[in-house]
Amino acid sequence: MSVKPDPQHASAPRSTRPARAIVLQVNGEAHELSAPPSWTLLELLRYKLGLTGTKQGCDKGDCGACTVLIDGQPSLSCCTLGVMAEGKQITTIEGVPLRVGRAFDIAGALQCGFCQPGMICSAHALLAREPAPSVGQIRDALSGNLCRCTGYTKIIEAVQLAAGDMGGHADLATEGLRTPVRYGQPADGFLVLGARGRKADSIQKATGEAIYADDIALPRMAHGRILRSPHAHARIKRIDTRAAAALPGVYAVMTGAELPEPFCVIPWTPDETALCIDKVRYVGDGVAAVAAKDEETAIRAMDLIEVEYEVLPAVLDLDAAERAETLVHDTDWKGRPRRDNLCKDVDLAFGEVEPALQASAVTMDATYFYEGNTHAPIEPHCAVAKWSPDGKLTVWSSTQVPHYLHRELGKVLGVPTAEIRVIQPTLGGAFGGKSEPFDLEFCAAWLAKKAGRPVKILYTREEVFYSHRGRHPMEMHIRMGASAEGRLLAVDNDIRIDGGGYHSFGMITSYYAGQILTGPVNFDHYHFRARRFYTNKPCCGPKRGHGSVQPRFAFECGLDELAAQLGMDPIEIRRKNALSGGDVTVNGQLVPSTGLRECLDAVSRMSDWTERHGKLPRGRGLGVACSMYISGTAYPIYPNELPQSGVQLLADRSGRITVFCGASDIGQGSDGMLAYIVAEETGLAPDDIVVHSSDTELTPVDLGAYSSRVTYMVGTAAQEAARSLRDRMRAALAAHWSIAEDRVGVALGFWFDRDDPARQLDTKAVLQIAEAAAGTPLSAVGGYRTRKVGGAYRGGTIGASPAYSTTAHVAEVSVDLETGVVTVEKVWVAHDCGRAINPVMVEGQVEGSVYMGYAEAIMEAQTYDERGLHRGPNLLDYRIPTSVETPDIFTKIIETIDPGGPYGAKEAGEGPLHPIIPAIANAIYDAVGVRLRRIPFTPDVVLATLRAQAPSPA
Amino acid sequence: MLRMDGFDYVAARDPGEAVRLWHAQPDTAYIAGGTDLLPNLKHRFVQATTLVGIADALPRGWARVGGDYEIGAGTRLAELATLQALAPVAQAAGLVASPQLRNMGTLGGNVLLDTRCLFLNQSDFWRKSLGYCLKAEGTWCHVVGGPKTCVATQSSDTVPALMVMGARIRLLGPAGQRELDLNDLFKFNGMDHLKLSAGELLTHVVVPEPAPNFRGSYDKVRTRGSIDFPQLGVAVGLHLAGPGADAPVEALRIVIGAVSPQPKALPGLEAFVGAPLTDAAIEAIAEIAHARTRPQGSVHGDPAWRRHMARVTVARALRRLRDGTEADA
What is the ipTM of this complex? Predict the structure, then answer.
């Protein structure tokens, strides 16, 4: 073993070894295969044996997604050579008995599902040695399997179910038995909605059946890699790809000049190209791409590409960006020379802030800083592209916006979008991190065209950190004032946003930073300025709670400061200023429904707030915070009169309805939501609804999974389509029975005559009657059409939404006075999502949001050194919480039925993240009396703050 | 995905064969659990043309021989975590990385764990962007800012615990077997922190059976409750003359890990022998820990805070051991 200096050819394998025979015992069968000794067990299982249930998330032992059982022991297949596993009994998810997976399914523990094959292997091994584990044992046993969706809450429940009686569903642990989708009581007056139920695709995920992008293997498929800039800011002087192209096994090489058309998810601001042409703008920016027979050859070819850079000074912080001595972009998206690094400047005033602040009995004035962090879905981005012989392109991509990807592919490649098909396979987590086009999709498509064969590009975990588009660092100078009675009078917020190298959603981010702050706590005078700057760092974008999590931290802490000055209970000040349903906010947004008071009551009661806030021993505290979030942005990203979402139903005489919809199920469960709504209207069981989603050739357009728009907008479209179908079924049945239509009733599984309830037909028969009456296959469509909302001023439609969710949190923390370690003990959440279509999924979204926000408050930070180099782009250095330290989360759903939402439903996926950060900060104040104005609250910072508060002998 | 250089793999059947195979080829490395070596190979700052598989060649499990526990180097960390007779060692083994890695990783691998650094354990692309570092392919230590000293950190959890229990290691080389006090294995050089001869194979760790009045513990400072390497590791081995909290100290060893290339055995503790472990004594010992611990910035966490944590962790461990109270959750 040695350490060799060889900086010339840095990345490429310096040597290879021929394949040799390897015999593996997998799931009880012997497999003889051929591979070099350097192949890991993970690679052999996935790419040689086709056992793609075992997932790859980090490829170096940090995440646990690749967990398999070796001689019964959970082990990481990415850190095991195939040759080391010879002679051992290997069990993959495909060979694990169904019981634990079914328990995950029933408990609602599966969201994106990507971490879960590994998680289920660990859980299965735990139960094999400890049939009745305690919660602590479960947390420990799963602590090497990172999950990014669930907050572990339902996973722990699932393991308990599997250890117990399967929640009364013991029979369901049998192979092949069909499980009813719905297993709880529906809400009053409904057949399906409100019932606790499974997700449509859970069992496929739990058994390793679900196909994610990297599970796709096509004949003759080549593997692509992208050469990335080692410099934060440099001009590209010359690129020579000849040696790379000449390397045997290389099928195609490309550079940015071949795809010069700029793109951006926001059509007004195209400032990116598929690969850099003139300049690189961060360490990791793409400059060239290669497709070859395998990844090793592609990497070797990348090392043969000569890139001559002229290194430029890098802009690495807000002050440098504002000074503008160096420009990240020389021109703007219209080609005009730039004089500054300002990407967007929003300045909006409502009322008279300064006089109101002066008239306030109490004021606060502080600067808060929100550090950047990233989504870290366990599935790395992956795209596969294939051209048909007649020149049509198909791209499978781990995207949460197939429609926008479809548009931008057409634009950049110069291909009519009618000739492009974008398919989103099962997606392994996104959280906003896959909500715009990325270099890999363009490069895979272009390389596939040049190579004349399919091309797959799979990001390494490191590349996921560079592609980023995560939470923007924001510096917020906030001033707030309230009357002596606790009426919030005025808010002024001056925000600087560190955008990174490109625009992404930057314009929207800048508006969201101010526009979504005006509820559920109401105030009269408001001014905000939000300036987003370009810097030479990976580009920030939308992460769960896009643009508004950061100012919410400042605002909710500021409210706590005012309450403390007034000697007022922090819950009381929020109650006193609560918006009511139908109110219009200071910036002109109509809030049709809000349950703030109910949410506050619930968390107050659950946490025993009145008895405990301000009364716990030093070092222990409770904090409250609340928030409001959009249920979809009112307008599409590109202005048009078309429906924002379309649903098509096709009934079959077999008693099945197929739903076609472009909506992206990214683990949140939108496919299930579609099935429940169609079942609700037609009387079919949800099990009899088949959903085909997110395929631009098969499904009507939906704009994608962003801005928490799916349940509200897609749900509305589904409701319209299903009601249309139901009406035709009703009319046909009424004619068949020769009765008035209003006498026809629908129940779950059958239709009946209201005047003679014994007269019944099952739904399948009704579908056949309706099809016969129509004389055509029975189908129906529905859409969500843009509703005109928002303030009547420039920017007044950004941040406007047809409905808003409301959340309140109470967090309980303990602060170790000697070490500065903050432990979040418990979190109580009440979330007003309007109608909970499936409470299990709502809870899952709430728990996952709390987890993600907790992580941002306590440990996560995406930061860069003085070179602009990411400080550890991997899941060991970028620490995301495990099952051990993630707090207990107690969720209460509040159903303030919204007048405009489908059945009154609103969003649940992003709003519940916002309050946890300020709730923790406010709890720390309650515990130890210090205000922390910068995240994350790491122990060194907390301790320093404590010491600054009162000099101690330590 | 990450790609490794090509290498040959040959599995040894016993320690002697492993040593022979190692010497039969140039540029050879042993691989047991592989949990340290494979990520390093993937990060490409380590190369080997032949891997000698020793997972099934090494002795596994333990036996009481005379007054000693002889623990096979092939014992998996998950197994070692059940060896309650050696409480600090079991605690340390149970705190290494994650459950999966403890099922895979061996005691021998953990003892000989390569030094780690934020500027080293990164991809080849990342290190190239950095300009490489002194330990691998470069000429500059980015932690201390100089061309001479590498302070990559000895990050084993089991080593400090084994050291306070007076462990020895048994090594096999072409010339035969030798035994070495674990204290003497390490040196302050992150590039080459082990005093081993080329190809020497660690076969056993020998731990004297603790006296009945022994009390020991291992505490690990880290951000998360799993997976993380230590930001600081504190092992304490305490012998009191009797069962009570006020019994005089007979012997005391404290070793701090994860601060530098070499685990730090605290000096000057003999001054506390013969007297009860009073609060004042504990404060004085904690002060030694603070004074003698100079954490390097090679691992995660503010070095000044980690140094502070040496004081706090030592004091808490001593109080807990003296009073017989349970560790914090």
Answer: 0.98
